[in-house]
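Email to the structure team, subject: Glycosyltransferase family 39 protein model.

Hi all, the expression group asked for a predicted structure before they design truncation constructs. Nothing fancy, just the C-alpha cells so they can compare against earlier work. One-line instruction: predict Glycosyltransferase family 39 protein, return C-alpha cells.
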Amino acid sequence: MAILLGVRNSVEGYTGCLKNNRNVVFLVVSVFLSLYLLSLVNPFTIPTIDDSAIVMRYLRNFQAGHFFSYNVGDGPVYGVSGFIYGLAAGILCWIGLDPQPSIMIISLFGAIGMFYCLLRIAYHASQSVVLSIIGVLVVYFSSSYLPGTLYLGLEVSVNLWLVFACFLYFFEKKSVPFYICGVLAIVSKLDTLSLVAGLLFLQLLRAFLEGQVKSQIRLLFFFFIVPLLAWIAFSTAVFGSPLPESFLSKFYFRQKAPRTSWFPFFEPMVASREQRISVALMGVAMLATPVIAFLRRKLFLPSLVMAAAAIGTLFLYFVYNPGEKMPWYYPLPELLMLLAAGLSIFDAFSIPRNLLRFAFSAVSICLAAGILMYRLPMNHDAPINSRYWQIVYESERRESGVLANAVAPKDHPVLWTGHGYPAYMFNGYVADYSGLNTKSIWVASRAVKADLPEARQFFEQLGIAGAPPQYKAEMYLIKMYDANVFMLHGLFPASVQKALKLRLAGSLYTIDLVGAPAFRVFVKDPEQARVVHSVPIKDVQGIGRDSKSGDLYVAAKTVSVPASPRAGRFLFGIKITPQDQDIIVESDGGALVGRCHVAKIADPRFPDGVRPCDIALGDGPGVQHLIVRDESGEPITLYEPAFEDAGQM
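Reply from the structure team: attached below.
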C-alpha cells in the first residue's frame, strides 16, 4: 500500500510539475517539432520555391537599404503579400544575413510560434499537458500540407502563427492581444481578413451574451480599429494602397485560374482515395461538433469554432479565385479541419451524461484514428515531394536566371519575365509581366485600353494586334523599359522574334515533365538574330509498336521529325535514363547529321530530368525528315523539337 501511495504521489507531483511549467514544456516541444521538420526539408542548401525568390529579390534590396523595392528605381512596392514576414526577414538582411537564411530563420520562428499556440489551444480544451502534446502530434502527423509548405520560403508559418494566436486569445478571453493579433494576421496575409472578421463577430456576440458590449467595443476601437487604420494610412502613404499588388493583379488584371469543376480549389484535397476517405471522416467529425456543443450547452467550444472557421475559409476560396491550387493555400483550411476533429475528442470528454460522453468520445477517437491512419503516409511523403520539386525543378528555373544574367548587355540589362528565380538571379532591372511586383502593369493596361497610337503601332509591329488585352499589356512592358533579355515558358511567336530581333540563348526542358513548356531565354541581338520555330508534336512520329506521345513529347526507339528547309539548328530535349545516351540524328536517307551525348542520371534519388540537344545543320538539312535515335537502340523520349533558321533576319 505504501508503494502504491508513493507511486500515486509521484505521478501527482509529476503531473503538477508539468501543469505549473506547461508553457515551458510547450515551447520546448514546439522547438523540437519545428527543428525536426526543418531537418526533413533542409532548405538552406537547396533552392526554395520560385515565389520565395520574389521575396528574396526584395530582401537583396533590403540589404542595400531600400525598403520593399523590387526594382530600386521604382521605389517601395507592396508586392510581398506577407508584409510582416518580409519585414522581419528584411531586418535580418539589413543587419547582414543573406536572403535565403533570413527567410528560413523567420519561417522557423513562425513554425515554433504556430506549434506553441496549437499546444495552448489543445490545453484549453483538454486541461492536460500530456493530452495536449499527443493531440497536436496527431494533428500534425495527419496533415498532408504542413510538412511540405512551412519551409517553402513563403509567409505560411508566420501567418499560421498569427492566425492561431487569434484563436488562442479568443478562447482565453484575452481581448487586447486578440485584437492586436487580428490586425497582425490581416497585415500578414490579406486572405485571413474573412476569418478574423468571423472571430470578431463571435467576440462581440460573446460580449453581448455576457453583458459586456460597451467595454468590448472600447477595446475593439483602441486595439483593432485604430491599429488597422494606422496600417492603412502607413501602407497608403508608402505604397499607394493598403492592398498588395498580388491581390490587385489577381483580382483586376490576371485571368483567374480556369474552373475544372464546381469547386476546383477542393480538388487536390480529394485527389486520391485516401484523401477522399479522410476528408469524409473530417466532415463527420465537424458535423458532430454542434451536437457536442448543444449537449454541453456551450456555444464557443474550440472544436465548433474551428469547424466553423474551416467552412468559412473554404467558402472564401470558393468565392475568391476558386481555381487557385498552389500548395501554400491549403495548410490553413486543412489544419482547421484537423483541429475541429481533434479538439472534438477533448470537448466530448466533458459532456455531462455518462452514456453520451462515452459514445461521442469513442466516436471522436475512432474518427481521429481513421484520419491519422489514412493521412500519415501523405504526411511522410509531403516534405520528400517538396524537396524533390525544389531540387529538380526549381534548380533549373534558377539556372535560367543565371543564363539570363550572363547573356544580358552589361550597360543596360533589362529582363522581361514573370518568374521569381530569374528575377532574383538577375542583376539589372526586371520588367515583371505578372503584375505582382510592379505598378507599371497598370500603365501598360491603360495604354492598351486607351488604344494609344504608340501602343497600337508597337503591337502591329509585333504582329499581335488581335491578341487579348492582358497579353498585349504584358508585352507593352517590353517597349516601356526597352527590355533586352526575356525568360518565359515556350517560344515567342515568329513575328515577335523578328520584330524584336531575338536570339535564343538557351532552353531548359525538365519542366516539360510536369506538362509545362520549356523555359526559354531570348536576348536581343540584331547581328545574330534567328527565328526559332517549334514543330507540332502531332507531326512528329514515333516509329515502332511501343511508341507513345503526349502534348510535349514522343517516346519511341526511333523518332521522325519533319525538317524545316531553312533550318540551321535542330533543337530538342532528351529525357535522361540510368544509362548514358548517344543520340544520333540522321537524314531520312541514312546520312549522319549530328550527335548529342546525354549523360545518365547523376543521382538515383533524383531520376527526373530532360537535357537539351543542339544539332548544327549548316545551311539547312536538305531533307524532308530527320531521324532521331539512341545509338544503342534503346527507346528515347524526345521533347519539344524546334528549328532555328539558318539565315539572318
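The radius of gyration is 29 Å. The first helix runs from residue 2 to 20. Ping us if the truncation boundaries need rechecking.
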